[in-house]
Amino acid sequence: MSLSGALSNAMSGLTANARATIVVSSNIANALNETYGRREVVVATDGTSSWGGVRIASIDRHSDPVLSHQARNAMASASAASIHAGFATKAEALIGSVDTPSSIAARLTDFEAALLSASSDPSSGTRLRTVGQKADALASSFRSASAGIQNLREQAEREIEAAVSDINASLLRLEELNDHIVGARHLGLDTLNQQDERDAVLDKLAAFFPLHVIARESGAVSIFTGQGRTLLDGKAVQLEFDRKPSVEPHMTMGNGLLSGIRIGDDWIDPGNGGMLSGGALAAHFETRDMDAVRLQVQLDGIARDVVERFGPGGPDTTLSMGDSGVFTDAGNAFVAADEVGLAGRLELNSVLDGTSPEIWRWRHGINALTPTDAGASDLLRALSQQLTNQALPNSAALEPSPKSFVDHIHGLSADLASQRVWATDASAFATDRLNGFENLQASDGVNTDEELQRLIELEKSYAANARVIRVVDDMLSELLKM
Questions:
Q1: d(C-alpha 389, C-alpha 469), whole Å
Q2: Would 187 be classed as within a structural domain?
Q3: Buried b (16+ CB within 10 A) or exposed e, 385-422
Q4: 439 part of a folded domain
Q5: Are residues 33 and 83 in the same domain?
Q6: Which residues form the Flagellar basal-body/hook protein C-terminal domain (predicted)?
Q7: Is residue 247 in some structural domain?
Q8: Which of 198, 276, 368, 449 is the most exposed place for a label (fewest CB within 10 A)?
Q9: Is 152 helix (H, G, I), strand (E, B) or coil?
Q10: What's the angle, vertex CA 87, arms to CA 419 and CA 307, rounded to 5?
């Protein structure tokens, strides 16, 4: 080999080593960057040069499409499970248990105790007023729980609006990145950083629903939901959602009072196995339209049960059909057709309030003409027994079997506690599964020990090429001295 050939080979080696050193340094600097794809310089024999040497064939970005797909699906599942677990935890807190002072169960216990206390001394105005106060507190706990449920639905409504905004922004950014990558590849430019950003946007988008990402030969990607709905194939679609400022118990997507998702001319129900199901977006819809509605329906059914137990046909024989009983629908007599939202309107009859001058009606009946025997306790005892009497509920929301009012309350509390445990366990499992895939991705990512080893190898190679150049320089100097 001539001296010129040796010098050319050594220079090409130095050039490749310098570029490889930059790549290794970039890998080490981004070792903790989860969206960074490890780079590796691929060199090849320079067959186009008359002197030989090496050239940089490419800089490869390491990624595993299959593992990325599995990790993104796990992200969607974990996001949905976390939302369901959060709702279950909040729902349990709204209803509470007997150990929670402000819970419906605790207020029911207080009301029952007040009735028993008053029945032992019905002439005591203080005890009768306490009955009124505890009954009012029980009704208030229903209203508070119902308001809390609607707050959760309104929160889900806001989360849907925010999610749609993020999804649209992400899809537009992916369209921009696709265009940039395709154009840059056509010009032979580096697109590695844009590919990193594109994967980061895809990871963010994957929290909302499972994705199918298909790489095109041009360098662009097409994106579809897990159910096959096209989101990006050249042009990005845009989702539309009409958020309502408030949500009432009677409002649902089924009756058109709440919005679904629209893509173009198509209306889509993201929840319950829809085209956008499986992630956070569907979970918010399921919270708004299924989980919270189901809880409200149960609460309304229990509210109806207590209204009817203490209304016409119950212990108070002074009541006729159409009269308001102990508990009312916002001060009016309850009508069966108005069960939806009843828990939020449940109120104590004003003549039985603890501040009413006619508090004696607890003893003699709501429509009694005058107070008679101050020692009469039959009605108070009968009212107390109504809480534990087994009766078949009239509400279709409750199980069609004889149960006491106490059973309904404690059963709801137990069901919510069970659902919270199940949802929390499901969320923990989904999170562990996601962590497993993320660990697998990390194991295929940047290993600083390996990168430092490559840096040492590059240093040795650089020194060898530099030594060749020095030797050639020495030989040329000797030749020039002749």
A1: 101
A2: yes
A3: ebbebeeebebebbeeeebbbeebbbbbbeebeebbee
A4: no
A5: no
A6: 445-482
A7: yes
A8: 449
A9: helix
A10: 75
CA distance 100 to 409: 13
Q: For the chain, what is the total number of helices (H) and then of strands (E)? A: 11, 11
Q: How far is CA 464 from CA 8, 441, 455, 457, 459, in A?
A: 14, 36, 14, 11, 9
> Of 375, 298, 352, whose CA–CA distance to 91 is shortest?
298
Tokens matching residue 59:
């800089």
Residues 366 and 460 reside in one and the same domain: no
**Distance from C-alpha of 326 to C-alpha of 133, rounded to nearest angstrom:** 12
The residue type of 199 is D
Domain holding 95, by residue range, is 69-434
Residue-wise pLDDT for 398-446, tens only, equals: 999 999 999 999 999 999 999 999 999 999 999 999 999 888 777 666 6
Answer yes or no: do 289 and 389 share one domain: yes
Name residue 65's amino acid.
P
Q: Report pLDDT digits (tens) over 189-228.
A: 888 888 888 989 999 999 999 999 999 989 899 999 988 8
CA-based max dimension of the chain: 140
Helix, strand, coil % (nearest 5) of the chain?
Answer: 55, 10, 35
3-state secondary structure labels for all residues of 176-207? HHHHHHHHHHHCCCCCHHHHHHHHHHHHHHHC
C-alpha span between 464 and 219 (Å, rounded): 38
Residues 196 and 263 in one domain: yes
The whole-angstrom separation of Cα 181 and Cα 169 is 18
For residue 290, being part of any structural domain is answered with yes
Q: Are residues 421 and 451 in the same domain?
A: no
Nearest residue to 367 via CA among 348, 387, 385, 351: 351
Cα–Cα distance between 124 and 425 in angstroms, integer? 51
Indicate whether 12 and 124 sit together in one domain. Answer: no
Tokens encoding 96: 């509470």
Global pTM exceeds 0.70: yes
User: Which two three-digit tokens encode residue 184?
Assistant: 């840059």
- Total domains in the chain come to 2
- Average of per-residue pLDDT values in the chain: 88
Q: What H or E segment, with its residue span, contains residue 138?
A: helix 125-186
Contact (Cβ atoms closer than 8 angstroms) between residue 221 and residue 236? no
Distance CA 102, CA 187 (A): 68
Q: Burial code of 70-105, b = ≥16 C-beta within 10 A, e = fewer?
A: bbbbbbbbbbbbbbbbbbbbbbbebbbbeeeeebbb
The answer to whether the CB of 8 falls within 8 A of the CB of 51 is yes
Place of tokens 């501040």: 355
- Asked if 41 and 105 sit in the same domain, the reply is no
Exposed (0-12), middle (13-18) or buried (19+): which is 377, by Cβ within 10 Å?
A: middle
Q: What are phi and psi of 254, to 5 degrees?
A: -65, -40
CB 389 within 8 A of CB 398: no
